[in-house]
Amino acid sequence: MERFAIAIDGPAGSGKSTAAKETAKRLGMVYVDTGAMYRTVALACIEAGVSTAEEAAVLSVLNSMDMRIEPREDGQRIFFDGKDVTAEIRTPEIGKAASEVAAYQKVRERLVEIQQGLARRQSVVMDGRDIGTVVLPDAELKIYLDAGVEERAKRRLGELREQGRAGELSEVMEKIRLRDEADKNRAHSPLCMAEDAVLLDSTGMSAEEVVQAILAEAEKAR
User: How far, in Å, CA of 193 to CA of 202, rounded?
Assistant: First the structure.
């Protein structure tokens, strides 16, 4: 298959990663989770005792950290200083910090370079918040995956419980609202739907139904 790119954007908890990972698997493409990169930068800052509210300090951490991405059959794995942190970065605390570091233009520029390099070398399914608008503006297929706030919060709550972590629906909903506000209103590369993207509302849909909808759009785009 000729090189082909699918960009999947959307807010927190909309099901991007699950859908992107499975779509990539079925199409024999490489899955790239861009959010994991920002989360890893956030983790590096926290471990270094650096405030994610201090841009210069965050950039210093980014420029000195060793981050490696490994595409695998079971999905992308991400390493920090040689350690697999794929699971470790999936906490609400890291998510909040990731939203802060993602607001810095220099951080985004550096990570976008890496993301675009991955797409030049192979066919990718890439998910994030600015893939169709900034990272891969020429992607053959762009999907904007959305869902209601309560539905997204229930999904996040399910993930937390799978990790053995407690949480209340109202608390998770509030965190998602705040994350949405930060992502949509940041000065650099805010979350928004590309003009040529296909809007897919996953509210009430199963993960399989979402994947099937994306596969149908991919067939039309090829």
Answer: 15
Per-residue pLDDT averaged across 89-117, rounded?
91
* Residue 164 CA, distance from chain mean position: 22
Q: Strand 75-80 relative to strand 67-72: parallel, antiparallel, unpaired?
A: antiparallel
Q: What is the pLDDT of residues 129-156, one digit of tens each?
A: 999 999 999 999 999 999 999 999 999 8
Residue 145, both tokens: 């995956």
The closest alpha carbon to 133, from 217, 52, 73, 189, belongs to 189
Which domains, from first to last, does the chain contain?
Answer: 5-221 (3.40.50.300)
The residue among 71, 66, 76 whose CA lies nearest residue 17 is: 76
The pLDDT-based confidence of 69 (bands split at 50, 70, 90) is: confident
Distance CA(184)–CA(138), nearest Å, equals 22
Pull the structure tokens for residue 142.
């762009």
108 vs 76, 130, 168, CA distance in Å?
20, 10, 32
Single-letter residue type at 191: L
Find out whether 55 and 149 touch, Cβ atoms under 8 Å.
no
What does the alpha-carbon distance between residue 8 and residue 20 come to, in Å, rounded to a whole number? 7
What is the tens place of the pLDDT at every residue in 156-213? 888 888 878 878 899 999 999 998 998 899 888 899 999 999 999 999 999 999 999 9
Q: Are 142 and 194 in contact (CB under 8 A)?
A: yes
